[in-house]
Every structure is written in structure tokens, then in C-alpha cells.
Amino acid sequence: LVSAPHALEGTAGVVAEADLHRERAALLAPALLLRARDLDDARAVWAANHGNALLLNGDFERVDTGSGANVPTDWSISEEDIQAVDVARPAAGDASRALRLYDTRSSAPIISQRLMLAPGSYVLSFRAFENPAAGSILRWELRCSQSGADSGGESTLSRVPSWQQFSVDLTVPNLNCPVQRLALKRVGDIHPHELWIDDVGLKPKVR
User: What is the pTM for the complete model shown?
Assistant: First the structure.
């Protein structure tokens, strides 16, 4: 006979393993459908896995401490920049977190996220703040993984030390672009001061 605690532990282990298999299947399903060239079903599965959100963790409230720093989940960060990016509260007493950038590399993607958007026009919105205010230039870029075609725009912060709202128009072409990578770059050669990003959102453009 198995004691109740051991039975519960065994059941919990089976449930956890089943959840892990389901999670892996959910991640693999879009890729398998793409290989079968079933783009509509692949996008539908991807959207369902993302709760029908076009972009994940745009408010940077979810963090992953496994890498030794408070980095945002759902975003990819290069090894070169992992020490120059973290998630924190911009000011003492703030209830919410934001992404903080330090001395990042010139014109290289800082953070990125893999997407499966349908062809069309989109608007990306975000807020930014830097102190001291130095007029930094940020570039959001949406690149097709298959064709390499890209769409993007640059936003220049004014020399005022306060949060500023920005928006960028992005386009997914009709052909050869089933998977995209959205990436943030900091334009320029020297980035010695900190810069904050928050409330990144993505939605279809209304004509």
C-alpha cells in the first residue's frame, strides 16, 4: 500500500509532467503546422497559446530570475546585453515595473520577441523615459524570419526628464513572412545613462 502523502506526491508528479508535455506540445504545434504550410491553423494555435494577445509581457511585470538578474519573461536578450538590461521600479514607491536599459551595444537588438502576425498594418505603442534626458533614439523593427524583409520606425526622446508616449507603424507583407521577430534597438554609439521602457502594446492599425 502507498501512504496518502506518497500517493499525493506521485499524483502531483504525474500532473506536473502532463502539464509539461502539454506546454511543449503547445510550443511545437505552430512549428509543425508551418512545416505543413498550414499558415491559418498555425496562426490560430499561436494566438490561442498567447491568449489572443499579439505581444506578451509588454508591461514587463513578469520577470525571470533564473539568469541571475531580473530580466523580462517572453523576451529574448542577447548574452552580450544580459548585464545591461533588467526589470525594476523606476522610482521608489512605484507600484509597477518597467524595463531598464544601461550601456547597451550600438544598433544591435536589445530585446526581441518572436511573433506570428497575419499580413497587414499594425501600430506599436510604448512609453519611454531617460534621466539625464539626452535625446536618445529608439528603433522598433519587425523583421520577417523567412525573407528578411523588415518594417520599423525610430522615436527620438525629447530632452525633458519625463515619461513620453510614442507609436510606430509596422507592416507584415503578404508573402514569405509567416514568422516575424520584433526587436528594440538603441540607435547611436554611446549609451552611458539609463533609459526606461514600459507599456509596449501592439494592435492592428485601424484605417
Answer: 0.78
